[in-house]
Amino acid sequence: MSVPHPHDVFVRDFLADLDQAKAFFRLLLPPAFQTEFDLDTLTAEPTSLIDETLNELQSDLLFSLATRSDEPRQLYLLFEHKSYLDPGLLTQLLGYLSRLYGKQLQRAPILPLVIYHGAARFTLPRRFSDEFDLTSAQQELLRPYLPDFGYLLYDLRDWQPTAEPPLAIQVFLEALRGAASGDLERTRRLLELAAHLFGERNGARIVHALLTYLFYVTPLPPDTVRDLLSHPRSELENAMLTAAQQLYERGHREGKIEGKIEGKIEGKIEGEAKLLQQLLEHKFGPLPKRIEQLVAKADEATLRAWSLRLLSAATLDEVFPKTPRRRPSA
Prior knowledge:
330 residues, elongated
């Protein structure tokens, strides 16, 4: 089983860090908005306010921030991203806006923002009123009675921030732009850029999220990806294991990681085996007993080899090639 929404998981993981979210929205929001609203007060709101059926694999996000004046006291940012041209975008946003406004006791404005990183040119309507096929006379007649709204669009195919983004956001934007392209040189440049994150706060976590995302969406062959990971710094080759290991151990201590594996990590090999099993289950779902036993009994070198295969494997058989059975001698 593959992750159904790898783009969503990557976006949600990145913007879960509030400092990164603040820096990101400073690049997105026009100066006039930042003059009127205080991004230092940015707060992540529960997604259940948008839609109670949303789960952790979807990237629809809601933030709030205070105004610099008295009225209204809050602005909400409804963040949506699209990796393809979705004809239902405006209808989806309308549903979210309706639910959000319906839950408000005191009216506060909601600003929809849409990041688009698909390959095709963005041709979707920008306002809900554009969805109606009306004559000019009909538009004039019905305009006062029809709902209408628009959204701020950031088409990553041609949008560039006015200021140089922090390194983490450079990696985030370039990953959305090019990770799924299959462009070898572009992927190489992305990994070279990501290699510098190891010296930054939360750098290992970001690299781990990036590599997980890359391995799900890239059409590049597994061997090509492995070769890219060994340059220009060896940390990239080990990031899927070492960075994730740190996250696992921290999450295990704090009780915050999903699908916690019972028992304590006893020694490096056992820890790597447990981590590999967790990553396999995350990508493919529940594992056959045979695979669990293989992982539990493997030595460090074998675990490392399987971990590297996992980076871009599409099936369990690509991680664990079946050894042909020897024919009995006559």
